[in-house]
């Protein structure tokens, strides 16, 4: 197997010859090996020929370089790279089983990752893109398909949300898919891997993952309210320690943005291929720990609670509550997501 390792002359001149290479599991978009260099284990990752492979490689390489200075580290060390072959050689990390309260350390580590970049990083990575007006149209269409009356003010309120998310200030280093499985729980803390979708933007859009249910992930979980509060508090403390500033308001907006996105109901290969919200009334499908309807039901509940106290999304809060009620009337056996990660 080691002869297939994409370890060319460039890497051999920098690091020497690899030994004991063994293929590891990975996504369909990459190949990953564990190997040894002078007796030290390393990870070799190659982005394979596929749509956007060069862009995904560039994003991961840039994110690893931008976050390399964070101490304690939040990413594996980048040992070498071969851009021509889209290969990265990384420090090997020993993953440990996460504790039941893993989200607290996760929140702190995510904040330190986000704080790795400042305004001078502009242009190094793409800017994060949020929901669109087309997403708003699909969401309101779903409400009608569920038999829920859409109030006249719903469209302007959601269009304003889309505009606020597009203007939200920030130059945080966003992972792009900070999910269970992309967090390595090591003896020295949490490290994040797989930065193929990294971008720059407002960190709240990823802090929202904890509360809205990991929207780009197979592993949807719903931590208990005390754990959620502790994890978000840990994020805010770590952010202040790293930047000297407080986390901005806007978590409800960030969570609501994920509710609008039908692409957050399917895995990456299926995104951008259909109006997935429009499919929900006719059929359900499983991805990972839950089905699409379970994902949506959880998100509707989150937003109905977060927006209940008023603010810019009070109308969405009422609409989300009505849509959730409509879903449970149609499909009363829908269960909540698990509280623990597999």
Report on the architecture of this protein:
- It is built from eleven helices and eleven strands.
- It has 342 residues and is α+β, with helices and mostly antiparallel strands.
- Helix 4 packs antiparallel against helix 5 and helix 6 packs across helix 8.
- The relative contact order is 0.12.
- The mean pLDDT is 95.
- Uncertain stretches: none
Strand order of the largest sheet: 1-2-3-5-4
Name the structural class.
Answer: alpha+beta
Note the run of SSEs as H and E.
HEEEHEEHHHEEEEHHHHEEHH
Please count the helical segments. Answer: 11
Estimated radius of gyration: 21 Å
* Share of helix, binned: 25-40%
Distance between the termini: 30 Å
Mean pLDDT: 95
β-sheet strand percentage: 5-15%
Strand segment tally: 11
Brief summary of the model shown:
This protein is an alpha+beta fold. 39% of the residues lie in helices and 15% in strands.
Question: Which descriptors apply to this entry?
Answer:
single chain; about 350 residues; alpha+beta; five-stranded antiparallel sheet; two-stranded antiparallel ribbon; 11 strands; about 40% helix
Question: What layout of secondary structure does this protein have?
Answer:
Layout: H1 9-15, E1 19-24, E2 30-37, E3 40-47, H2 53-66, E4 78-82, E5 87-91, H3 102-114, H4 133-145, H5 154-167, E6 172-174, E7 183-186, E8 189-192, E9 199-201, H6 204-212, H7 225-243, H8 251-260, H9 276-279, E10 286-287, E11 290-291, H10 292-306, H11 314-330
Antiparallel strand pairs: 1-2, 2-3, 3-5, 4-5, 6-9, 7-8, 10-11
Helix pairs in contact: 3-7, 4-5, 5-8, 6-8, 8-10, 10-11
